[in-house]
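Hello again,

I reread your note about wanting to compare the complex against the isolated chains. To keep things tidy I'm splitting this into two emails, and this first one only covers the full assembly. Below are the input lines as submitted, including protein chains and any nucleic acid or small-molecule components. They are followed by the predicted structure of everything together. The single-chain runs will come separately.
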Amino acid sequence: MKKNHSIGEKKTARIFLLWIPLILFLLFLLFPFYWTFVTSIKPAEELHSLKVIYWPQHPTLDSYKHLFNQFNFLHPMKNSLIVAAITTLVSLTVSTLAAYAFSRFRFAGRKPLMVLFLTNNMFPTVLLLIPLFTIMRKLGLLYKPTSLVLSYTTFTIPFSVWLLSGYLNDLPLSMEEAAMIDGADRAKAFVRIVLPVLLPCLLATGVYIFMQSWNEYTFAVLFTNENSRTIPVALKMLVGQLGVQWDLITAGGIITVIPVCIMFFFAQKRLVAGLTAGAVKG
Amino acid sequence: MEIHRKRRRGSGIWPYLLLAPALIIMLSVVIVPIINAISMSFQSYNLTRPKKIGFIGLDNYAKLINDSLFWKSLLRTLIWVFFGVGCQFVFGFMLALLLNKSFKGRGVVRAVSLIPWVTPGVLIALMWSWMFDGNYGVINDVLLRLHIISDKVAFLAKPASAMPSVIITIVWQGIPFFALMILAGLQGIPGDLYEAADIDGATGLKKLFYVTIPSLRNTIFVTTMLRIIWVANSVDVIFNMTEGGPAYATQTLSVYVYKKASSLDMGYASAMAIMLMLVLLVAAIPYLHNTFRDQEG
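Full-complex prediction:
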């Protein structure tokens, strides 16, 4: 009898100390997405009815059709894809090389250079934005995808170097050394031994860079025009054109987050492990 | 030492070659632009008046000292960062403690609760603007049903409610990051610390303050620092919700600089951006100190 009683108490404690607060948190964190989705499938009269409707009586995909047919949303999607893909490729390549240098060599100037990369996030976005705008303007790069790729490397490269150095430091030196003793030079050892093991980490880092470039707004709004604008800018433009068209904006929002969410779920575990490793240690 | 010396001698030019591409890019997109910004801050540099561009010494800085909007924006930045990051920390910590318990579906819950963190800032701003809407907003509807308010409130249109509204939005965005960092820290605390506390008869709250929080000191410190820098610099959420209004009620320094830069007054914008950087530098001295120390050897 006594045992049953304590089990019952434990259950009640779990409900109050775990499930109720957890459900409240999830409600707070996820409700905005539910609301965005519901708004995107509401017909106009339900959207602007004075009685707020929590689930549409007549759900419709009109706003999605509108978005692609009249507002040609595929075009900014394509622009975003190009910018994000090139940024990812460039940042990953140069960062992998740099991270390998930091992780595997001890050389004069190593410490100040690492600090330079690590403290890069101290510079306010707006501080870099101003000179980059005038420089891109002078070079004739303004409104071209290159200007965004270059701007995004200001934060993606330092971050990737930091993340990849962490992953590399965790890889044992012994395998490379064994290969090098067997006569492979360092480049061969890197390509044959390190790269395959590092691949999942590279993918996780790549996903993070891609997400950041895909989501970026502050640079994008100043560095693009009608032809080169990326998704975040296009989303904001929907506010201006004919008043605020919430059904279109929310539909665009759903389309924007879905690819990012899918990528994130695949990379999530390793990415989180890499991100937290640096901050958690000693 | 012996190994280090050997490695350094053996490595020769290699590390520099490997670093060169990243360094060249960083030099041209970060270092050169910052020097550029410093030089612009001493010039009258308004792209709408290209003929008047020229050196004016400290005029931009003098103007800034007398600009009451600058000081107000600085104060708003402090409020924005203090409440934004403070609430992110408290709620992120609570979420991490919950996610550290074992229950069915924990992996899914953990992944799903990170979604706000990967959502674009513009979309966050638009989503929340729509929920805060004074006529059709769902937040008004919920508060009315719960009898917390008796009339609809135009949250983003009133100076008194606009700042709390944008802060709630940034807190929503930042909780997942805090939760995931602190969760990783929690999982690194050795179990025997809690066992020892149990033997000493410590209760839940005592364990939290005498075991959990002290063990997480470094994690909390680094995460909070990163967040402070990030939140102080963020433009997109506020800009897309209120554009700094109404009546400058939500205009932080970053937003003020951004608006000046958008109107192409680059000289004055640079001077203010440099002030923002100096403020952040002062706030981050302990963090920088930490970074330098960690890179020993």
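For quick reference: The two ends of chain B are 10 Å apart (CA to CA).

B.
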